[in-house]
Amino acid sequence: MSVGVSWWTLRRRVLALLGVVGVLLLSVAVAEAVVASKNREYTDVLLMEVGPLRVQGQEMLNALLDQETAVRGYAVTADPEDLAPYEQGLAQERATAQEIRQLSAKYPEIVADLQAVEQQADEWRRAVAQPVIETTRTSGIEAGQALLTDETRQRFDEVRGSVAALQEEILTAREATARNVEQTGNLLVILLIVAALVVALAGIALLLALDRMVLRPLTALAGQVREVVTGDYTRRIAGGGPPEFQRLGADVDAMRQRIAADLAEVREARERIEWVNTQLQKQAEELTRSNRDLEQFAYVASHDLQEPLRKVASFCQLLQRRYAGRLDERADQYIAFAVDGAQRMQRLINDLLAFSRIGRLTAGFTDVNLNNLMAEVAAQTEPARQYADAELTWDNLPVIRGEEPLLTNLLVNLVSNSVKFRRPEVPPKVHISARLVGEEWEISCQDNGIGIEPEFADKIFVIFQRLHAKDAYPGTGIGLAIVKKIVEYHGGRVWVDTDVPEGTAIRFTLPARAEDVAAARTDQPAGTADSDVEGRDAGEQPEGTGTVGADADPDSVTEANDQATGAQRTGVARQGGSQEFAGGDAGSGSGDTGGMKEAVR
Questions:
Q1: Of 186, 252, 302, 554, which is most buried by a Cβ count within 10 Å?
Q2: Are 555 and 420 in contact (CB under 8 A)?
Q3: How far apart are CA 509 and CA 504, in angstroms?
Q4: Cα(79)–Cα(83) distance, rounded to whole angstroms?
Q5: Residue 272 and residue 395: Cα distance in Å, rounded?
Q6: What is the C-alpha to C-alpha distance for residues 569 and 383, in angstroms, rounded to an integer?
Q7: Packing angle of the helix pair 51-77, 84-103 (nearest 10 deg)
Q8: 330 or 193: whose pLDDT is higher?
Q9: Beta partners for 252?
Q10: 600: which residues sit within 8 A by CB, 6+ positions away?
Q11: In whole angstroms, what is the distance from residue 276 CA to residue 176 CA?
């Protein structure tokens, strides 16, 4: 390839073509700007000068006619009031003449005709109008009318003829200006057509150049690459056309050579990867079997430990009742330690059994109304809330696809946890709310308790994980682990919101039903239990409610159920579908949110 051809690259060719087209279009644009300026100038003259001149010419004629009519009328009546149009016409004539002079500065012919009109008008007033007016005023009507002869009318006709000549000259100037406007407009159209032709020809030239310099070389290069793809790695690839494509062909051929050189290594690596994948698959199957065996072991172990532990606990309690006070103080203390240890072990085993049952024993998912579910949660947690003077509130909650017993267990754990981890001397307040986020319901449980540090936000969901001594807060430390397992079993996720100003907020997500998502997208309430499903944001919640609070170590379901023994639930129906439950005073607690509320005093 010669040096000249190598220098003439595709970029330079395209830039050269675009430069030529740009110069042509710029020339046409400059010509159009000049012609458009002229066209605008002629249009302004036509609209602002020649057009008003025609109007002023007619005004001049009307002013002269008013003067002639007023003179004739005065000669008939001799009434001075009939001369008012004469004076007005004279003033109008002078004003009109001044306006015509200003507008016709570029038209000397019009100025000359105007001077002729003014001269003849002055002669008519001097020879006819003034003598008639003076004669009528001094000698009477008959003397004045005697002066109005055919000769005087002929003199006024000459004035009218001068005005007609003036109007004809104005019309001639208007037609000349209109022709200039039309010519410049036609020239603009021609220049636009030229610009369109330049663009069209440039486009055609660009297409032809692209076909010759781009498409054909690329098609040839692609054909060679396809031959290599079929497995012919010895096929040499050579680029044609502009220098860029030649260099591209050389680069592709270098890549072909590198691929051919590495192909053996790739095949060997693939064999090694397949062997590793086989081993990983075996390990995954082994882990699945091991997890299944561990779950079975946890279930069996916790179930089989019930009978001997129950016997130990029973005999320890019997020993405590029968020999309490008969032995020394240290013996009574030892017996109390044994009874407490047996009871705590029984609670641990029950909680472990409940944890292992999640997802194993299932009745299938159904539509669960969380508003109705909260009534059951309120009943189960009523003794603990009544003891702590706690207030439980909730907004209108959605309908969820899930297992009702597991969801009840989930909410009971969260509410019990919030009531347990309360601040001293501060009545606990727990609020449940929900809002639709995308295709999931985000449900929140917020309290005004002791809160939790951000560094412990993940540890509280670990089974048997405690952040406080068992003497400070009772429980086994499995409640939130059960919550996490239930949420994940339903396809959601759970976390602690550490950005709340007071207390603790635990949020979890549950998949929303398709009809709820569709209704939300069309801004139509659907999928609620009694009214709107979507929970309020923080700014819309009533006083004393908020997002969830639950800290550190959760209570187990067993403990909550044990505390709920003998509990009695009372309900009062409220307008709007809301309901209030009270363990004490039925009227305590506010229901101004239109949601559900549980208050214990």
A1: 554
A2: yes
A3: 17
A4: 8
A5: 58
A6: 10
A7: 160
A8: 193
A9: none
A10: 382, 385, 386, 389, 390, 391, 392, 582, 583, 584, 588
A11: 95
Name the more confident of 112 and 229.
Answer: 112
pTM reported for the whole predicted model: 0.40
What does the alpha-carbon distance between residue 245 and residue 87 come to, in Å, rounded to a whole number? 92
**Contact criterion met (CB below 8 Å) for 551 and 506:** no
Q: Which residue from 473, 468, 480 is spatially nearest to 351, judged by alpha carbons? A: 480
pLDDT at position 362 is: 65
Residue type, 568: Q
Tell which wins on pLDDT, 294 or 167.
167
Largest CA distance in the chain: 163
User: Are the C-beta atoms of 436 and 534 separated by less than 8 Å?
Assistant: yes
**What does DSSP say about strands 429-437 and 391-394: parallel, antiparallel, or unpaired?**
parallel
Q: Residue 329 has what DSSP assignment?
A: H
Mean pLDDT of the chain: 74
Alpha-carbon distance of 128 to 587, in angstroms, equals: 111
| Number of other CB atoms surrounding residue 590 within 10 Å | 14
Q: Show the tokens assigned to 436.
A: 């639709």
Closest CA to 414 of 425, 401, 427, 428: 428
Q: How far is CA 545 from CA 228, 366, 428, 430, 455, in A?
A: 70, 29, 11, 7, 26
Distances (CA, A) of 346 to 20, 33, 320, 475: 94, 97, 17, 12
Lowest average pLDDT, out of 221-235, 335-349, 452-466, goes to 452-466
CA triple 95-101-105, angle to 5 deg:
160
- 391 close to 429: Cβ distance less than 8 angstroms: yes
Structure tokens at 426: 């501060």
Q: Kindly give, in sequence order, each residue whose CB lies less than 8 Å from that of residue 596, ignoring residues fewer than 6 positions away.
A: 371, 374, 375, 393, 394, 395, 396, 397, 578, 579, 580
